Amino acid sequence: MGSRILVVEDETDLAELVAINLRGAGHDVAVAHDGKTALAEIQRSQPDLLVLDVMLPDISGIEVCRRLRRSAQTVRLPVIMLTARTDEVDRVVGFEVGADDYVSKPFSPRELVLRVEAILRRTIPAAEVVGPQVIALGKLVIDVPAHRVEVEGEEILLTALEFRLLLDLASRAGRVQSRDALLERVWGYSPNVETRTVDTHVKRLREKLGAGAVHIETVRGVGYRALKS
Ligand code: CA
Question: What is the 9 CA–ligand 1 centroid distance (Å)?
Answer without folding.
Answer: 5
